Amino acid sequence: MDPAAGSPTAASIGLRQLLMVLGDSLVEVQAAPAGLDVEIRGVSLLDPEDPPTAQPGELVLVIGARGRAAFPALRAAGRDGAAAVVVKLDGPGQAAALSETAAEAGVALLSLRSEARWEQVNALARAALDDAPPGEPGMGAEEGDLFSLAQTTAILTSGIVSIEDAANRVLAYSRTTDSDEADDLRRRSILGWQGPEGYLAKLREWGVFQHLHSSDEVIGIDSHPELGIRRRLAVAIRSGDRQLGTIWVQEGSIPLSDRSRQALLGAARVAALHLVRRRRELSDDVTLTRTLLAGLLDGSTGPQPLATHLGFDATRPAAVLGFSHGTTEAYGTEETAYEAPGGVAAPELTHSEVTNLVSVHIAARHRSALVTQVDPRIYVLLPQLPRGVDTDTLRGWTQEITDAARRHLGLPLRGSVGCLVPGLGDVPESRREADRILDAMVSAGVSVAVAALPDIQAEVLVSEILTLLSARPEIRDPRLTALVSHDSRHQGRLAETLLTYLNSFGDIRAAAAQLHVHPNTLRYRLRRAEQLTGLDLSRPDQRLLAMLQLRLPPIG
């Protein structure tokens, strides 16, 4: 154990924040039995020759012990109260066993990407700890900083301070010892955590918001006793040309200090640093959620990291919905290009528009739904489903989304309903089923827009059989391959005619009508196909083989 590395710093950082710093390009969460809010107070390097020990709250980097060789370090970390352990995996099969051991030990497990360097994650983790200010457990630095800033500004101005974001939502405020000092606007803003619309309308009428939007200068608002408003000052919180919020100072029982305007300008600049950091952290939180969701869907990450990150119950039923769209979509046997309202062609529709539509509609049905895009498809995870939700319910929700996409975007979405699973740990199974359905809908040209597996089980199974056959060209019948090649050289339709005849269950008239030819023409083509290939269509096995192989794409 590196002794210098093992000494904890005065500050600490939550595992969630550390993951945002490191990013999914370096590490993946494999297990987090105590959640993502455990505090990391130091970083240590564990060499293979060192005895496996740790200090409470440490992030232990297990160098040189890959895969199962890291079991002793995991158990020791749990015994000694470490916060998390980082290891490298030899292969994907090791993640489950290591995650189980980490869960038993009660320690978080992170896997380092094979191409990543230990010194890189070590340096980043230490920098994150060095930058983290000491704080009270359970209180985010951002919340404490803004309330502390409001209180300091109140002292400097002798006023009553509130800090709002750009949407006039109260983020923090100073304490007052006398409730009579706060005017009606102040009380109603804090109680509702947002300025009352009637007062906001007056401020707009007086040009206050226009001034704040365009200027860095402090603006004064006179008292209006008839409206219950005392004198106040305001200044915009800005980052470059963008307004991030506003600091308001209301005059209380004593006049504002002579240096109030100067104090407000300084407070606005400090607040800007906090709000820029807040925006970055929110973005990082969204990125972490997407990373954990993607890992859960493909089975590379267990259910616990996402469940603890978002507070989900991993033991309740869940399901996955899948959506597929494109610039043109094949429905049945026709290819149709669609236009959005106003003549906007489907190719110009962005992925984000479709994702937003899916997100809005599914959120109205299930509060906990998560939506992500894994090109070229969009997936919806429905965790902790309530009782009474079944496949029919999910099919209805999916149909609403595809109908809305056609109605509002002019876009034909295909939707699939994955199987209901007992918990988040089985979500990859539901995702695989959703993909199987979409694969079959695309390859078989299924005419319905929404399906669950029971709806098109035959089409799904045939599609998967064809996929297997396509990957094994050596088991194709050379006679049928020759028939397809003959058509290609002579612009013929013998293979198409044969497949249509077989799909029509040998009904000459039905097949001829579908091909728009005379029944005698169809009979001639069938005889010609038999003569060229030596096929005997009276034999069931040859008919079965022809039905399958003629659905495959030509070799080469």
Care to describe what's here?
It is a single chain. With 556 residues, the chain is of the alpha+beta class. The protein contains 20 helices and 21 strands.
Tally the helices. 20
Q: Please state the structural category.
A: alpha+beta
Q: What is the average per-residue confidence, as pLDDT, rounded to a whole number?
A: 81
Number of strands: 21
Major sheet attributes: 5 strands, mixed
Residues in helix, %: 40-55%
Which strand order does the major sheet show?
Answer: 2-7-6-5-4
**Rg result:** 32 Å
Set down the secondary structure blueprint:
Blueprint: H1 3-6, E1 13-14, H2 15-22, E2 27-31, E3 39-40, E4 42-46, E5 58-62, H3 71-80, E6 84-88, H4 94-105, E7 108-112, H5 118-131, H6 141-157, E8 159-165, E9 170-173, H7 184-192, H8 197-205, H9 208-214, E10 219-221, E11 232-239, E12 242-251, H10 260-298, H11 303-310, E13 319-324, E14 328-331, E15 334-337, E16 339-340, E17 344-345, H12 351-365, E18 370-374, E19 377-382, H13 391-409, E20 414-417, H14 427-443, E21 450-452, H15 457-470, H16 478-490, H17 494-503, H18 508-515, H19 519-533, H20 540-549
Parallel strand pairs: 4-5, 5-6, 6-7, 20-21
Antiparallel strand pairs: 1-3, 2-7, 8-9, 8-12, 10-11, 11-12, 13-19, 13-20, 14-15, 16-17, 18-19
Helix pairs in contact: 2-10, 3-4, 6-10, 10-11, 12-13, 14-15, 17-18, 17-19, 18-19
